[in-house]
């Protein structure tokens, strides 16, 4: 089972890398969604698929019974999901605003902060020393 | 439970909450924010004084037994970083009271700024890997907010690139974290120190180490991963650039130092060898990038990258002297870099642009500003007796000691090229006669704004000069930090209590 899930993780990461490299903000968002889920699945599998039993401690006992699910990865994933969801909603709004402001979803065409002509000096005067 | 450890984290969050409550009262908002920043600075100072006199301390949140709860650890590296955070927080908030306009403040500028400071302090003080991830996210979402606050097209454009690559970095971080948990079964950093050594299959751990290296490398701006930085750091208001430049990439460097001295130290030839190559490439590409541009803040952004190379070089060489150099470099660089960005903001206010071709005559008309620019700029380039000189000298000497001649040569040449591009800014902005089209903007003639803008710059410049003229105490602190980093058993014993 772990082997199949590991393959699935790899497949999801591959798909998300493909989408993220497409140079398009919409595809990036889909890539991000898939990658986030792939990573959550990875944490889950890394915590071992031991048992479907919930890790509840019976009344009076001090330790959970043998053969319960590992609760820690689930707690980690829960935190990651919450954070990921918040970031995702932020990214949606940011990319929407960026589309409105720049008029494009193609990242190669978003050159307002980094104009292509900027690297060349416009031929203004060279420093000539202090004119005190 | 040692409450001093939690104060630098909790004070900014309280300040943020209080600021949020009165965000429609412009004047009160600024005052409260400044008071919060001053209290935060006081708490950071108290923490460093306590650590100097009592040594390393640890705190278990909620009194959970280690390694199950969240641990906060104050070793010398952490408290140095927290102290600098306090200083930068105070100066940048003070600068913001004059620089940031009412519109941004009404949208919660000061609250986000304090959340950022709290997140950064949390990242520096935590001793738990998952907790570090959470602080990274707190910091990241606050920096997202700051970088696009105002919503200008340039900001949104830069913000898209910043967000894209930084989200990838956190995804890699949490993937590495999951794998590390799967292999060792723990996420407490002190516990990981022994757990990692006990793993039989070292190849697996090396793979995870490289995942962490890439994740923190993106954050720190290491060689092939830095492209988000010069694409975005020049777009927000100057005060925001200053805090991002001073703190955020350095959290990445801090995380690299922490992980690669405490946890991943079993295969130094490979992991730290990789870091040496990345560090040298980072120094050179960063400084060459800076020479190509004529935009004030873009030049400074590329210098962040090249300076990060020096710090990582210190970590990668992995000798006591080199790590001392890395810590000293962090201390010096954070102050100098934030100050340069603040100065660029004043220049923009006066000249109305960041384009070097269209600025000029500042030496003649704004002598004080020229004086304050000279100190951090040439400290960055490594002129004696300013702080950057000592930082560079320690690192070059550390490289020579272990016959790493290429690293030493790269450090020296990059220093020279840094001086070249600082001279470019100096020549264009300060010495060149003012362009004929020069028309002072309304902001530059508003008299009250000036002193509040200049004072934080003066404070940071004074700290640079103090570190330069008497590096002894700061060097002793850095040495102590390096000693602790190279003897992780001290850290482990403090946290685990000698189990």
Description:
The complex is a heterodimer of chains A (132) and B (499). Residues 120-132 of chain A have low confidence and may be disordered. Chain A is elongated and about 70 Å long. Chain A has 132 residues and is mainly α. The relative contact order of chain A is 0.12. Chain A is built from three helices and no strands. The termini of chain A are far apart. In chain A, α1 packs antiparallel against α2 (25-46) and α2 packs antiparallel against α3 (71-102). Helix content of chain A is 55%, strand content 0%. Chain A has helices at residues 2-20, 25-46, 71-102. Chain B has 499 residues and is mainly alpha-helical. Chain B has one domain (2-496). Chain B is built from 21 helices and two strands. Chain B has a two-stranded antiparallel sheet with strand order 1-2. The longest helix of chain B has 32 residues, at 153-184. The model of chain B is unreliable at 442-448 (pLDDT under 50). At the A-B interface, α2 and α3 of A face α6, α7, α10 and α18 of B.
Topology:
The complex is a heterodimer of chains A (132) and B (499).
Chain A lengths: L1 H19 L4 H22 L24 H32 L30
Helix pairs in contact in A: 1-2, 2-3
Chain B lengths: L6 H15 L4 H29 L2 E4 L10 E4 L1 H24 L2 H5 L2 H17 L3 H20 L4 H32 L4 H10 L3 H19 L7 H5 L5 H25 L5 H25 L3 H22 L2 H32 L10 H4 L1 H15 L5 H15 L3 H27 L15 H23 L2 H15 L1 H9 L3
Antiparallel strand pairs in B: 1-2
């Amino acid at each position: 089972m772990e082997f199949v899930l590991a393959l699935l993780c790899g497949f999801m990461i591959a798909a998300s890398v493909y989408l993220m490299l497409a140079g398009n903000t919409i595809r990036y968002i889909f890539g991000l969604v898939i990658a986030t889920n792939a990573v959550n699945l990875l944490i889950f599998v890394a915590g071992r698929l031991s048992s479907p039993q919930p890790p509840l401690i019976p009344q009076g006992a001090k330790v959970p019974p043998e053969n319960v699910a590992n609760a820690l990865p689930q707690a980690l994933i829960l935190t990651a999901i919450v954070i990921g969801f918040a970031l995702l909603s932020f990214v949606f709004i940011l990319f929407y605003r960026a589309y409105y402001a720049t008029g494009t979803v193609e990242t190669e065409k978003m050159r307002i902060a980094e104009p292509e002509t900027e690297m060349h000096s416009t031929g203004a005067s060279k420093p000539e020393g202090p004119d005190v | 439970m040692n409450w001093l450890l939690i104060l630098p984290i909790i004070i900014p969050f309280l300040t943020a909450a209080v600021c949020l409550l009165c965000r429609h009262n412009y004047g009160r908002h600024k005052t409260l924010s400044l008071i919060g920043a001053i209290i935060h600075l006081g708490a950071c100072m108290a923490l460093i004084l306590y650590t100097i006199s009592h040594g390393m301390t640890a705190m278990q949140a909620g009194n959970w037994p280690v390694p199950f709860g969240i641990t906060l650890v104050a070793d010398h590296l952490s408290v140095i970083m927290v102290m600098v955070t306090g200083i930068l927080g105070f100066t940048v908030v003070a600068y913001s009271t004059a620089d940031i306009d009412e519109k941004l403040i009404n949208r919660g500028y000061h609250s986000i700024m304090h959340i950022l400071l709290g997140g950064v302090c949390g990242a520096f003080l935590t001793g738990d890997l998952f907790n570090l991830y959470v602080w990274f996210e707190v910091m990241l979402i606050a920096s997202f907010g700051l970088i696009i606050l105002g919503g200008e097209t340039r900001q949104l454009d830069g913000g898209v690139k910043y967000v894209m690559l930084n989200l990838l970095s956190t995804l890699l971080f949490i993937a590495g974290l999951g794998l590390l948990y799967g292999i060792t079964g723990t996420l407490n950093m002190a516990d990981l120190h022994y757990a990692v050594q006990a793993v039989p299959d070292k190849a697996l751990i090396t793979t995870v180490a490289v995942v962490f290296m890439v994740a923190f490398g993106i954050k720190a701006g290491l060689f092939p991963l830095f492209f988000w930085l010069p694409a975005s750091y020049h777009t927000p208001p100057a005060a925001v650039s200053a805090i991002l430049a001073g703190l955020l990439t350095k959290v990445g460097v801090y995380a690299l130092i922490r992980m690669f001295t405490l946890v991943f130290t079993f295969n130094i030839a490979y992991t730290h060898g990789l870091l040496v190559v990345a560090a040298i490439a980072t120094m050179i590409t960063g400084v060459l990038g800076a020479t190509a541009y004529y935009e004030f803040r873009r030049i400074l952004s590329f210098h962040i990258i090249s300076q990060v190379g020096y710090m990582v070089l210190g970590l990668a060489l992995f000798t006591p002297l080199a790590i001392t150099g890395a810590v000293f470099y962090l201390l010096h660089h954070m102050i100098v870099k934030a100050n340069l960005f603040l100065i660029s903001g004043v220049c923009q206010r006066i000249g109305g642009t960041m384009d070097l071709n269209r600025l000029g005559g500042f030496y003649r008309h704004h002598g004080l500003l020229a004086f304050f620019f000279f100190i951090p700029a040439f400290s960055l380039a490594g002129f004696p007796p300013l702080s950057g000189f000592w930082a560079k000298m320690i690192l070059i000497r550390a490289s020579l000691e272990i016959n790493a001649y290429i690293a030493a040569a790269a450090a020296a040449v990059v220093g020279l090229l840094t001086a070249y591009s600082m001279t470019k800014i100096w020549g264009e902005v300060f010495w060149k006669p003012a362009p004929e089209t020069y028309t002072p903007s309304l902001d530059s003639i508003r008299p009250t704004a000036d002193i509040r803008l200049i004072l934080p710059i003066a404070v940071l410049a004074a700290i640079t000069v103090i570190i330069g003229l008497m590096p002894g105490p700061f060097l002793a602190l850095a040495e102590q930090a390096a000693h602790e980093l190279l003897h992780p058993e001290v850290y482990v014993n403090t946290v685990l209590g000698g189990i």
